[in-house]
Design a protein that fits this description.
248 residues, 66% helix, single chain
Amino acid sequence: MSKYTTGELAKLCGVSVRTVQYYDTRGILIPSELSEGGRRLFSDNDLRKLRIICYLRDLGLSIDSISKLLSETNTESVISLLLEQQEAALESEIEERQLQLKKVAELKSSLKSMDHVSFDSIGDIAYIMTNRRRLRNLRLMMVLIAIPLGILQWSSVILWITKGIWWPFLIWAVTIIPYVIIFTRWYFKKMAYICPQCHTIFQPSVKEGLFANHTPKTRKLSCPSCGHRGFCVEIAAPYDNILKGNES
């Protein structure tokens, strides 16, 4: 039967000497014998055992799990349980990494559209990304509210054109005015904007926001903090801003 020193065993398994020594101290790879000079000597069985340990480590199993597996007599049930746990852990890690990869791609895309990049501007992008779901939900709510009103509008117009009945359109025209006022106030209470100059998050007055030049994602406003006037990125208002608005 062959005998291997720590260095020879490490070389055969493609690991470092320190790794073999660590497994020895953890009690999962104890040498078969000691030479007269006190050198640790490993057998063919130890070599096979180390290769199995290395394989399990490649699967991501911890030293504690491998130690538990080696100490159990019912190896089949233990390894099945350990592999199921490891599979669940790896799937969770993959999902987390994919989410991180998506965030990296979004950040890279956002940075390409910016003329000047600073640490604060990266913070703005990060805030916009985390705020995106709330903003999407608010805009979806706006669409859902607008759909029935649009249906009523066109129904009254068609009824007027085809049947000559004009009063439903008149009722719609009268009722839409207070609705627009209420809806506009609600909209600017729920939305906030990020100043591209000082990165302050603020809410404009209803009048300023309503008549400001805008795009689907920005609005040209004056920052109350630094006075900069330019296109500010629209976000869902932070909860503390909404609370302050309710208190006032």
